[in-house]
Amino acid sequence: MEDKDIYSWLQQARSAGLSDMQIHDQLKKAGWQDDKISQVLTGGYSQQAENEAIGQIAQEFAPPGTAPVQTKQPPVQQMPQGTPAAPLGELPGIFDLIPRAWEIFSQRIGVFAAIAVITLLAGGILYVGSFFGFFASFTGSFAISSVGSSTFSIATFALPVIIAIVMSIAWTFIGSFSTAGIVTAIQTPKQNLNIGSVLGTAMKLIMPFWWVSVLLWFFVSGGMFLGWVPGIIFAVWFSFGLFLPVTENVRGYQALLRSKEYVRGRWWPVFGRYIGFYAMAAVALMLLNGGVMLVTWIIGSASDTTGLSFLAMILNYVIIGAASAVFMPFALCYNYSLYQSVRAECAGSAIDTRQTNSKGIIATAIIGWVVVPVIVGALIFVAYMGLSNARGKARDATRKSDISQLRTALTLYYDDYSRYPSALNEVAGEYISRLPTDPRSDAPYDYDVSSDGLSFTICASLEEYDTFTESQYCIDESGQTSNGIFDSYPSDFWDTLDRE
What we know:
Helix content is 66%, strand content 4%. It has 16 helices and four strands. The chain starts with a helix and ends with a helix.
């Protein structure tokens, strides 16, 4: 039987109103494997080894009493009388996708566990290496500083920053390897599943997965900066991009654009299946976390043993960590099942990424990453400067009040000694309880007394001044203040200027 026979049968089944779930069940009942069914539904089936199974399907759904016949287009089961046909193109529901995801997950749980162990080991090695790197950098810095080297600041700050950057990049590659391994295992047929081949393929796909992940993060984050809605739209559009390097050998930005074309016209159904699944997962994890915390609290309250309480806390972290580790591959299995269903709907349709407004997508992300942070940064700067100016004005007011109090103390001193002191500390204690200092630098105010002790000037350096004011605010023995550049002119200067 030729490949076109199975696709002809598939077309007849869909024309009869059968959903992909019903077609899946019929092929499963006839002895087909899940990977072959997926290939048929997604248009990727090109092998002749299952032709006999097609004959079994044709015989199974033939009318009772019909002798076995060889046919190139196996008949399909008609819907029972009175039952409406399933709408063409309807995506499976959440509770249809979850069993499919579980079937994929349960068949590959050993491979997923191996990938998790390798990822944890690589992460642990990276963590230990970074710890010793930080320790060595700081130890070396202090050793350098002990001999007075001028490179102390560079060794102290540059090396830890470089280590942090390298560690962050390494973590992204470890994450790309883990994701590539999980997706490869999901896509690989069960009978061909081998941890060695999966890891080998994952190693080859690290760079494609890393690049797609970076682009996905760039577009989604840029959209989030514009108020969440564009970011959510981008996240749904590009949600299938991580599968395409493995399933269709489409990489980079083209993988995201192809994912968007799959979602075209189905955004709300796809979004609903994502939000419903992840909402249920969040509730389940919260309940698990709450239950574990409750048990931990009960054990800790009922026991006076510190060791038992510590073990309960460790158990809490282990259970929550294990649940999170299990959820990641299961979530990818769910996403993959949704991707398969959407791709099956697009079977036979040309996917043309040229009709996608890629310039608009790129421009939106750039606006989110450049314009919005600039505006937010400018607002933060303006707010900071306003707050700084307000604080500066408050300190200036304190300075003016301080030198006014000092003038009062100096006047009282003059009343007793008929002269002003040679230094401000002479009035401390008896004439003023505490000698005020600058509120910011804690330096004493400038005090200048005449040689005969009959006049003085006290000045404070201000923070807030402009073209028409000087940075010095001064007061003399008569109580006259000077702060503006015009204060240095005689009092009748402006009257004389007006007469001229």
